[in-house]
TrEMBL record:
GO cellular component: early endosome
GO molecular function: zinc ion binding
InterPro entries recorded: WD40/YVTN_repeat-like_dom_sf, WD40_repeat_CS, WD40_repeat_dom_sf, WD40_rpt, WDFY1/WDFY2, Znf_FYVE, Znf_FYVE-rel, Znf_FYVE_PHD
Protein name according to UniProt: WD repeat and FYVE domain-containing protein 2
Record SUPFAM superfamilies: FYVE/PHD zinc finger (SSF57903), WD40 repeat-like (SSF50978)
Domain FYVE-type residue range list: 310-381
Assigned keywords, A-Z: Metal-binding, Repeat, WD repeat, Zinc, Zinc-finger
Organism expressing this protein natively: Schistocephalus solidus
UniProt feature coiled coil, ranges: none
PROSITE patterns: WD_REPEATS_1 (PS00678), WD_REPEATS_2 (PS50082), WD_REPEATS_REGION (PS50294), ZF_FYVE (PS50178)
Length: 482
């Protein structure tokens, strides 16, 4: 009998929608917060660069607009110099300076950087360098003061995003094949030169976004393969942890350091597994968004495990049934070959009969139902399967997100020509978890109430009217008790 262990991964306290910016004639490619000014810069396919200022009503209204020679694919804003770097589809980097009264965008220079759409820009103030990558399969670096090109590096595929680690002078370049190339700044070279260090392989599709954690030297990468990977660069062990929750391409990922409030320092036993270490002043979360319209908040202070490497075999590693390409074994056993599957917990190559169960496994980042072999399904019966993530539906397919951490604001840029501003301070970090399997039915309610064990229910009777009525009754009872 097949069984499932399902979690009700629902939103806790949904972020408050503060404002919606619309009225664009083309799809919005990027938007950034203007720090400390209650303003937002947007770039869209209609070739406009607009500054939106929040009025007393709480709504954003356009203050100034520039029409660019080509659509801007991304924006970088420096709050200290009030400088705006815009990467254009035609390969040009256009710089602007925002006036103090927010009424003027002064064009300062153009850099003919690439031959294709610019997909990544980083300004390294410490090295006085401007770094960029493009669909033309190159990474280029420039003297940030003069705009003079100092060098370039040829990639094997179009570049899609950039991140830079200042302490080690290491540049991370994501590309359309799913690889992440690490380039190091060569010592004693004049002009500065970047050289290949190594490549990270983990994604099966184009890398869409990256984010660097300067506090613990960890890299986040998102991809169209629906996965987010956290690379523990500073740990020195080569560890990589997957986060699987989206049902479509993950388009953007960011780190969020949420301050720990004094009143939340005492946590229940249910939340201990995802609480930050004693002495920490903040909770570390990964925020990811995708074309499915979902925004996930992943609790990164929790204990997590690496996903196993998938095994390869000619026979099922549990029952020894031959797979369909093992003709000799099929002939010897007079058996029909079967398809090969993989258990997401142990990585074994198994047949359908030996992997008929589905379960979440949050400690490995699986917040959606995945295939589990029979042995692992028995092993996780007594494990803690509480969710280590929270999510909400943004109601539009998201191409990019921006976080203003000090103000607890989230910007979601949709492919429906809308930009939404939300307050994320009230995001709930303790979630109700609804666990169902062939052994027992549990309901993990809000912190302080605990878990209540209910009668054993078989999977075949899982969706009978009596069970649904019982479940609804207990849900209402626990909700009223809290």
């Amino acid at each position: 009998m097949s069984s499932v262990v399902a979690t009700g991964l629902k939103s806790g306290n949904k972020p408050d929608l503060l404002s919606i910016i619309h009225g664009f004639e083309g799809e919005v490619n990027d938007a950034v917060f203007v720090t400390g000014q209650n303003s937002i810069l947007t770039a869209s396919e209609d070739r406009s660069l607009r500054l939106w200022v929040m009025r007393d009503s709480g709504r954003y209204w356009p203050s100034v607009e520039k029409i660019l020679p080509s659509p801007a694919s991304l924006l970088v804003f420096d709050s200290l110099s009030r400088r705006i770097c815009s990467g254009l589809d035609n390969g040009t980097i256009s710089d602007f300076k925002l006036s103090d009264d927010l009424n003027c965008l002064n064009h300062t220079r153009d850099i003919l950087a690439h031959l294709g759409r610019i997909t990544g820009i980083i300004c390294v103030r410490e090295l006085k360098l401007l770094l960029s990558t493009s669909r033309d399969k190159t990474v280029a670096w420039f003297n940030d003061a003069t705009g003079e090109q100092l060098g370039s590096y040829n990639l094997d595929a179009p570049g899609t995003c950039l991140q830079f680690h200042v302490d080690s002078n290491c540049l991370f370049v994501g590309d359309s094949t799913g690889r992440i190339t690490l380039l190091g700044l060569a010592k004693g070279r004049d002009p500065p030169t970047f050289e290949l260090i190594r490549q990270l392989h983990g994604h099966t599709g184009s890398v869409t976004s990256m984010s660097w954690d300067s506090l613990s030297s960890r890299l986040l990468s998102a991809s169209i393969d629906q996965a987010v990977i956290m690379w523990d660069i500073g740990g020195g062990k080569g560890s990589a942890y997957e986060l699987q929750g989206h049902s479509k391409a993950v388009s953007s990922v960011e780190w969020w350091y949420r301050p720990i409030l004094q009143k939340t320092t005492a946590v229940s036993d249910d939340s201990a597994s995802r609480s930050p270490p004693v002495g920490r002043t903040h909770t570390t979360l990964t925020v990811s968004a995708g074309l499915d319209g979902l925004v996930f908040f992943w609790f990164m202070d929790a204990r997590r495990q690496e996903t196993p490497t998938w095994g390869e075999a000619d026979l099922c590693q549990l029952c020894s049934t031959p797979f369909f390409w093992n003709v000799r074994k099929m002939w010897t056993d007079k058996a029909v070959g079967v398809r090969q599957h993989h258990c997401r917990r142990c990585g074994k190559a198994v047949c359908e009969k030996c992997s008929s169960h589905r379960s979440v496994y949050p400690v490995m980042g699986f917040e959606r139902l995945v295939r589990i072999c029979n042995d692992c399904f028995k092993a996780i019966a007594n494990e803690d399967l509480k969710s280590l993530a929270s999510s909400f539906d943004a109601r539009h397919p998201i191409s990019r997100i921006r976080i203003l951490g000090d103000a607890n604001l989230l910007l979601t840029i949709g492919k429906n020509k809308e930009v939404k501003v939300r307050a994320i301070k009230a995001i709930q970090t303790q979630l109700p978890v609804f666990l169902i399997n062939s052994y027992a039915l549990y309901l993990s309610v809000v912190p302080g109430v605990g878990s209540q064990k209910l009668p054993v229910i078989s999977a075949s009777k899982l969706f009978s009217p009596s069970v649904l009525i019982l479940t609804l009754h207990r849900l209402l009872f626990f909700h009223s008790a809290t």
